[in-house]
Amino acid sequence: MMGLLIIGVTGGIGSGKSTVVRILQKYGADVIFADDVAKEMTEPGMPAYKEIIKHFGAGIIGEDKRIDRKKLADIVFSDSAELQVLNRLTHSIVVERIRELVDGYRNSGSKMVVVEAIVPVEHGFLDLVDSVWVVLADQSSRIERVMKRSRMTYEEAERRIKSQMSDDMYISIADQIIYNNGSLEELEEKVRGLLKDENYSLP
Ligand code: ATP
Q1: Which of 14, 43, 87, 108 can bridge 145 by disulfide, Cβ–Cβ 3.0-4.6 Å?
Q2: CB contact at 8 A, 175 and 133
Q3: Is the residue at 43 inside a domain?
Q4: What's the pLDDT tens digit per position in 25-79?
C-alpha cells in the first residue's frame, strides 16, 4: 500500500513556489501554508503572540490588538538579526502545529501533503517532510514577478530577496531542485517528473 507522501516546498520570494504548490494541488495534494499557520499562532492569545510582543515591544500592536504584520515586516526585513529572533520565537510553535495538521490529513486518508514554507531550515521543518523541493529562479525573473504581482518597487523587491536565504543555502537543504526560469508548461512537466520519481501515481 502507498503511504502518505509529505513534500516540503520552499524557495525565496518570486521563485514560483506557490505556483509549484498549485500544480501539486491539482495532482491531489492537501496543502499547509506555514505562513498561514504562523499567522494563526500569532493571533492575540495564541502561543507566539506574547513572545513576539515581549521582544519587539507594544509598538507593533495594531488598533485591532493584532500584531501589525507590516510594521513587523519593516523591522525584520531591514535587519537580519531581528529576522533571526522572530524565527527563533515562532518556528518551534509553528512546526508543532504543522505536525498536528499533517496527522489530521494522514488520519483522513490523504495520499500527499505539501507544506509550503519560505524559511525552512530551523527547528524541525526538515524532519517533518519526506522530501524538500527547492524552487529557484534567476534574480531578474524573480524581481519582475514580484513587481508585477505586488506594489513593490524594483529596489524593495531586490532588498527583500537579499534579506532572504541565498540560493546556496536553499540548495544545501534540497532533495530536489526545481529551476523555474522557463514557461509554466515546463514547470508542470518538471513537477510531474518529480512526482513519478517519488512513486506517486498520477491521477
Ligand atoms: P512569494 O514568496 O512571494 O509568495 P512565490 O515563490 O510563491 O513567491 P509565485 O507566487 O509562485 O512565487 O510566483 C510569483 C508570480 O510569478 C506569480 O504571479 C506567478 O504566476 C508567476 N510565475 C511563476 N512561475 C512562472 C513561470 N514559469 N512563468 C511565468 N510566470 C510565472
Answers
A1: 14
A2: yes
A3: yes
A4: 999 999 999 989 988 999 999 989 999 999 999 999 999 999 999 999 999 989 9
Does pLDDT of 179 surpass 60? yes
160 lines ligand 1 (CB under 6 A): no
CATH code of residue 67: 3.40.50.300
With respect to residue 201, please indicate whether it lies within any of the assigned structural domains: no
- The parent domain of residue 29 ranges over 5-194
Mutating to test ligand 1, I would choose from 18, 143, 183 the residue with most ligand atoms within 8 A of its C-beta, which is 18
Which are the contacts of 113, defined by CB distance < 8 A and separation ≥ 6? 4, 5, 6, 7, 29, 30, 31, 32, 102, 105, 106
Q: 150: CA distance to ligand 1 center in Å?
A: 11
Q: pLDDT tens digit string along 118-141?
A: 766 555 777 889 999 999 999 999
The count of domains in the chain is 1
